[in-house]
């Protein structure tokens, strides 16, 4: 919980607001391989990752397509499902044994209504997600696989150590074999 409190403090919440917010979160442990969210079901929880690594993925003709990864001090949620209360198009799986701080949609919305600074915080989170999605889409459409890998090396080098090769390949839009060739050329 200390990492969540620290995150909230860095986000500008005072001690009273931090306590009110943290009081709505519940500790949850997920073992490696367990799902936080499942495609086809409504995601009614948002969680802050205290420890662990998560894979966001979709099924396409029996193949898993990794769309995103999240780790310590990130949030995990199937955002469209959480916001619209529609079945999720993706699943979210723990790649490691993990500890989360989870909040229900109902409690989340209650915080938005009762703590004005939480609504501003929420808007900031949404803006960050929109920018992340836009950059990811832009990179996938305009950069070569080699350029996307180099950008990953520069922007998020920890992922190269933490995320299995097949998931990195999927995120970059290449096969694991192609990614191995790219890595060999760049070293």
TrEMBL record:
InterPro entries: cNMP-bd_dom, cNMP-bd_dom_sf, RmlC-like_jellyroll. Pfam families: cNMP_binding. Residues 9-111 form the Cyclic nucleotide-binding domain. It comes from the Bacteria. This is Cyclic nucleotide-binding domain-containing protein. It comes from Spirosoma endbachense. The lineage of its organism: Bacteria, Pseudomonadati, Bacteroidota, Cytophagia, Cytophagales.
């Amino acid at each position: 919980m200390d990492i969540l409190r620290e995150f909230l403090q860095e986000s500008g919440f005072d001690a009273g607001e931090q306590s009110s917010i943290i009081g709505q979160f519940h500790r949850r442990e997920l073992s490696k391989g367990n799902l936080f969210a499942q495609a086809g079901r409504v995601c009614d929880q948002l969680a802050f990752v205290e420890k662990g690594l998560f894979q966001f993925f979709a099924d396409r003709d029996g193949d898993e397509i990794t769309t995103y990864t999240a780790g310590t001090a990130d949030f995990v949620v199937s955002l469209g499902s959480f916001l619209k209360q529609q079945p999720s198009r993706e699943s979210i799986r723990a790649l490691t044994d993990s500890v989360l701080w989870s909040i229900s949609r109902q409690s989340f919305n209650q915080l938005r209504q009762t703590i004005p600074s939480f609504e501003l915080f929420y808007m900031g989170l949404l803006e960050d997600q929109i920018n992340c999605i836009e950059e990811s889409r832009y990179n996938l459409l305009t950069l070569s696989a080699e350029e996307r890998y180099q950008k990953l090396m520069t922007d998020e080098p920890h992922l190269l150590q933490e995320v299995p090769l097949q998931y990195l390949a999927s995120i970059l839009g290449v096969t694991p074999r192609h990614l191995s060739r790219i890595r060999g050329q760049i070293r």
